[in-house]
Fold each of these.
Amino acid sequence: MENIPQSRRKFITTLALLLGSGGLLWRYLTPTVARRRQVVARAPRADVPVEGALIFRQERVALLREGDVIHALGLVCTHLGCTVTVTGSGLSCPCHGSRFDRQGRVLKGPADRPLSRLKVEEMDGVVEVLDG
Ligand code: FES
């Protein structure tokens, strides 16, 4: 049998333990199931008015339609979190007067960041707003 020096044996044992525990740690920290897709709001495409908006007050989300294109905006004001209202010309915050265009861009402060844009998917004439 080969005579392996004690320090080399200790090194190999330590390395094997580190690799083994690293594998277990990786398995513990990574999710085993892909993150579930979370639908925040859902509506038939026909319910979203052209050049208008369909508002989900409780979810604080609006679906806006420009021609054939539908997008979703979060209605949480980026200043201090009040609920933004959709008006004929854009969106406005009743708390401190911030105004946003229909793309969510800031037109007037004090808000300094755009409204959040949410992911939208459409299938079989139904539009879904997804979280994240
Ligand atoms: S919370 Fe909307 S402008 Fe202040």
Note: Residues 77, 79-80, 82, 93, 95-98, 110-111 surround FE2/S2 (inorganic) cluster (CB under 6 Å).
Amino acid sequence: MADYEIADLSLADAGRNKINWNEGDMPVLLGIRERFRKERPLKGLRISVCLHITAKTAALMRTLAAGGAEVVLVASNPLSTQDDVAASLVMHDEIPVYGVRGESLDTFRSHINVALDVKPHVLCDDGADLTSALLQRGLNAGVMPMGATEETTAGVKRFKAMEAQGVLPFPVIAVNQSLTKHMFDNRYGTGQSAIDGIIRATNLLLAGRTIVVAGYGWCGRGVAARAAGLGALVVVTEVDPVKALEAAMDGYRVMPMLDAVRIADIIVAVTGNRTVVGPEHLAELKDGCVLANAGHFNVEVDVAALEALAVRIEQPRTHVTSYVHADGRKFHLLGEGRLVNLVAGEGHPPAVMDMSFANQALASEMLARNASTMAKIVHTLPQSFDTMIASIKLQAMGIRYDVLTTEQDTYLHSWQEGT
Ligand SMILES: NC(=O)c1ccc[n+]([C@@H]2O[C@H](COP(=O)([O-])OP(=O)(O)OC[C@H]3O[C@@H](n4cnc5c(N)ncnc54)[C@H](O)[C@@H]3O)[C@@H](O)[C@H]2O)c1
């Protein structure tokens, strides 16, 4: 059996059921797995994967292993690990896994170190934690990975910062930037699963309640749309005038956070930024407000400020921490301010992770074949991959669509013919 540090091996069979159920809605990734099994494009590569340890990630791990890679999985968040899935990967797939739901930050960091100590050829990052830790260790050219892939918006920002500062040591493929990733995972995945996490944690009725969505990017659009669909009154806060205008024309009220906190029943921060709900907002926050974060890192809601103003802290339900202010107001923080969809729910539905992880698998294959000739910058996958992934997904969904006639194709590539 593989090396591991997980919660409980006896959960393995429950985990296998969960993984198999999720794979039932991941036809694109399973198709790639079949090809990988025949072609073995990742043979001889060690890939260290730092992702949320969920059933969907397990499907990716099985796919990378089918491609011939030696894989290690470590948690990308201390609170998102599904312990049954971790157990199943160790027991039934012989994949080394390091992650325990609720692990301390020290343990989390020690697992990141395990992923680097195996001297991986490829890093599969989520939030750039592996690469950031590698750079902070000091680089050793002898054991330099050939490249990395990045799963999320927050990580792409960090990789772009490394590129701008000239410290990016290898090519990085920003999987998040593929259309078949962010248009579906960030929008429909976060849209559904963040609302699902809030409901699982609180059992609140959203209809008629005011929900404030901070950030109207790919994730924010999804969260706002799904909240509106459940009858909530949606308010959007933004710092980008174009996105603020888009939110207004999509039919939502737009206002500064300082105004929004006075009417908010629920706030969901999904900006990728820090201190979106900070001390000045807490001073004005409506009694009973529920605070949730769906952005990658746990810095969007200022938890330290919440703690500082509390005269009492209560735990009324799993995943709900209530902070009682001296003036009697009570605020409810979900999932310790970490990703609400993964802490209080199961994360994104497999139907969207199918496409995200199809992109991940193809990105690893691209590095395996081309890393030595790729510039040490942040790359995106070719658009032809999006077309292929979307076509397979549509086919699996039983949806047919039109194709251009030769006449139409010629017209679209010409300039002579007008009115
Ligand atoms: N919960 C999940 O499972 C999940 C999934 C995908 C991405 N993410 C994370 O969610 C975050 C957002 O991702 P995205 O793809 O929507 O990014 P995005 O860049 O498309 O959108 C972020 C938006 O937030 C706005 N913003 C920044 N600072 C703000 C502030 N102080 N107040 C209000 N708005 C502000 C930006 O202008 C931008 O429009 C990232 O951290 C990303 O990694 C989470």
Note: The first strand starts at residue 4 and ends at 5.
